[in-house]
Amino acid sequence: MNRLFIFIVSFIFVLSSFAQEKETPLTFTNVVKVKTTPVKNQQRTGTCWSFATTSFVETEILRMGGPELDLSEMYNARHAYEKKADLYVRFHGKNNFGPGGQAHDVMNVIRKFGIVPVEVYTGKHYGDTMHNHGELNTILLGFLDGVIKNRSGHLTPVWKNAYSAILDIYLGPEPETFTWNGNSYSPASFRDHFHLNPDDYVELTSYLHHPFYKTFELEVPDNFAHDPYYNIPLDELIDIMKEAVKKGYSVAWDGDVSEKGFSHKRGLAILPPKSWAGLSSEEVDSLFKYPDEMAVTPESRQQGFDNYSSTDDHLMHIVGTVTDETGKTFFVTKNSWGTDRNNYGGYLYMSEPFVRDKTLAIMVHKDVLPKKLAAKLGIK
User: Fold this and answer.
1) Which of 24, 132, 257, 324 could form a disulfide with 314 if both were Cys (CB 3.0 to 4.6 A apart)?
2) Below-70 pLDDT ranges, the chain
3) What CATH number does the domain containing 185 carry?
């Protein structure tokens, strides 16, 4: 009887220990982490593309031996908004106009105008302590629609000046020169001081409706500039992301975060094989704690893009990789939603299946590309 009692107690203890273990969150082991700048907060704006890519640029300056900079995201946004307005009017209101954008929009601004520190251009000229573009976005679109729909039969030559004046009022006038560390710079000379060359960066994607190793205009609304992307096989795209961080480079990431598998609060992005519909909160919690994930193929990924289940929602910044207890790879991802809304101080861990399925495009330094791939793409 005593032996049976001991066996039963021991068995119950093992089961309870296993159940307790199942309630613990995932634990991660760092594989590689690229040195980067602090997490920021885009607040009440749709400028994730500027925050993610500006973080990417700050990290590139660190990689090249430069100092830790806090660059102005709103300087990039202000100039991108001017480009958006020009195209919106040229296309008679048929081109996309909104707060969204892509990584290349920041590089296009840097190429043409330069960069400035955030203390030089805060973008908060409207007297608020936080970024808030609700009123600004409404006014900009209303103004442009008024320009397009005017009944005079032709556009005036001064509408762009009036549009720029709105941006000056809300975001602030563009600085022509400024002082940094006792020296005077223009935005262009500040860019050149850190040897930042926008032409060193390439955007890559992977879809089956266009030929591989060619460029095509990625068909998402926020590609308002109609810029081309290099199209490569999915496995090569994922390998480039992994190799980039191994070599000390980071990755600007554009993808879908609308799925329930993306939880900024939990700091996880996963791709479970079952539908979320009808699941209890306990079942949802279980999926996040011990995710069993679906396999992603180029065909399933293409289907998601074609049927709108994978859309262009958000840009973030990948700065490393980790593994969980089972050896699964997760990408360390720097978000722009502040530091107090999730478990990891503003970072989250995207599983490899999630990344394979939900990545729309990435931006990397061209030196990350394997030589054979670069040659095949015609990149020198």
Assistant:
1) 257
2) 1-25
3) 3.90.70.10
